[in-house]
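Predict both folds.
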Amino acid sequence: MKKIISLALSLCLALGLGATAIAIESNGVDIIINDAAITLDVLPQQSNNTTFVSYWPVVQALYPDAVNAREGNTAVVTAPGLNLTIYADRPYLVANGRYLYLPQGVKTDGEALLVPVRILGTVLGANVAWDPIANDVVLTAGTGPIASFEETYNADDLYWLSHIINAESGNQPLVGKIAVGNVVLNRVASSTFPNTVYSVIYQRSQFTPVSNGTIKLEPNEESIIAAKLCLDGANTAGNSLYFLNPRTAPNSWAARHCTYVTTIGAHAFYR
């Protein structure tokens, strides 16, 4: 059984190197922290090649001075250099102002909240690896928790990305808002389009909200969140470069000349 679980975990954990090994032992899988086994409040869970672990025992082991506050479906962890909020009912967590996407959400087991171990490692500044010899999930302590949003991202990018997301998909679900943001950032990364968020949005004859003025409307809260998620790597539209509403523009240039990727809410996406 342990070999089976080990093989499954090896598919979902990237190999990594580090000096301070962390592992935990449960359900045939070893997980130990700083060479000492820790006790988990609940067993890890596997879902779609992702390993979910209860956040608090791991946080405690890496940050002994951390404080954990629970209020309903929300957990708030504070420690030197770290402010982490985990929501049982939202597909993201917030760490030092950065929004990290959880496509499968947060798992619950009684009062425990379980998050993907890879994401937890990123938040805590620890590398996550698989030790194939010892059959361990290994967290390697780094120099500190995740850098803040202010230290990492450009304020102008957030401003314009949140505005275009709101103007194009403010009434769409979060996954649809993220997808619109993906199109903008994919264009920035493409040699075919301008290389900044602002210049992509204001490229001539590309986005209707620029011509009708709705780009200037104040974005709603979820559009801002979607922009932050996109800037931290959330992706629901793959490598799409175009989107359209097939009901209002069924014969658009993108629909006729580009490769269909997916439909999310009211928008179809193409590359």
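Second protein follows, with its predicted structure tokens after the sequence.
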Amino acid sequence: MRGTIVILSLLLATACKQKETTNPKQVASVEAKTNEQEAVDLEVYDFEGFKAFLNKEDDKTYVINFWATWCAPCVKELPYFEELNANYKDKNLEVILVSLDFPSMYDTKLKPFISAKRLKSKVIALNDPSENKWINQVDSSWSGSIPATIIYNKNERKFFERSFTYETLEQEVKHLK
């Protein structure tokens, strides 16, 4: 009986070992993902540094979306912001995705998320624990819940504390342009 257990253990160990080494594509894929994740360059700002993004007075229209990887409605609408960015990148529009993820999540959750979703819009992290001070500076009507979006240009500014579809997002941008 003891001999049978030893032989079974050796067979199982050998079988597991073979599974790990017989798929070089899987190993290469994991390495590529790791390299992509390391390549994500995340800009992190406190609110004082971030304020410059809220008040640009050039000829662009800015779409600033406040979101987090742990917010399901935020994640659901991100493809719409990416589509808007792709469709309007040559039309004087800039999409900025402002992550409110916790700093402890930047390397373990946020950067891998950015890499996996292949986000092309500018992504920055807002790291300022004094949200009770800066939320009203973003917009006096903001309760602090996310998703939240500001769409503005030098002539007009709109604030939204809700989710978007691509159609409603594009409609708001067109009204402002």
